[in-house]
Write a structure and sequence with these properties.
Layout: E1 2-6, H1 14-20, H2 24-33, E2 35-41, E3 44-53, E4 58-66, H3 75-89, E5 94-100, H4 104-112, E6 116-121, H5 124-128, E7 134-135, E8 138-139, E9 143-149
Parallel strand pairs: 4-5
Antiparallel strand pairs: 1-2, 2-3, 3-4, 5-9, 6-9, 7-8
The protein binds acetyl coenzyme *A (ACO).
Length: 151
């Protein structure tokens, strides 16, 4: 598997990006401000992430998604490890990621990759998303913010 930057915004895989965030306007804003990377295998795009500058010290993985047929094969972990290296090489001090209170698998993965919980933004999803989101039988209401210190 190869991970390469997608520099042409038109080439960004919106179908995959929308798996991570159903709001297309928000995704387009990430693409405008961020660096998009794709994971390719035999020429097919199987995963994507977008890294944004939250501040001069903090990078954020704003969006990460793996093709539904290829999830749970370790591709998401490889993308996060790549994002950590890219953020380090850009000189950031911390890397952050945010997800919903109901995203149990994502919370597990991010902590396995060295992120720890920093904050909860109460009612973020119920306030900002029109349609209710439910996963694992839990209403997605709050955003959990996680952070990892970079060396
Ligand atoms: N409990 C414990 N561990 C779990 C659980 C759980 N419920 N669910 C998953 N995991 C662990 C797995 O055991 C595995 O750990 P391991 O590496 O130690 O074996 C890890 O989480 C899964 O790792 P990967 O296989 O690398 O993950 P995958 O390739 O499926 O990618 C991703 C993860 C990106 C979340 C993918 O499932 C996806 O695209 N989901 C839909 C979109 C999405 O939700 N994106 C994230 C939104 S938040 C944001 O974008 C900032």
């Amino acid at each position: 598997m190869e991970i390469n930057q997608i520099t042409d915004r038109e080439q960004a895989p919106m179908d995959l990006l929308l798996l991570a965030d159903p709001n297309q306007q928000i995704v387009e804003n990430y693409l405008k401000d961020g660096h998009c990377y794709g994971a390719y295998q035999r020429g097919s795009l199987i995963g994507v992430y977008v890294l944004i500058n939250k501040s001069s010290e903090i990078a954020e993985i704003a969006n990460i998604a793996v093709h539904p047929d290829r999830q749970n094969e370790g591709i998401g972990r490889k993308l996060i490890e790549h994002a950590i290296k890219v953020a380090e090489s850009m000189g950031f001090e911390h890397i952050e990621i945010g997800t919903g209170n109901s995203s149990l698998g994502q919370l597990a993965l991010y902590q396995k990759c060295g992120f720890s919980m920093q904050a909860i933004i109460k009612d973020f999803f119920t306030d900002h998303y029109e349609d209710p989101i439910e996963e694992n039988g839990i209403i997605c209401r709050d955003m959990i913010r996680l952070s990892k210190q970079l060396t």
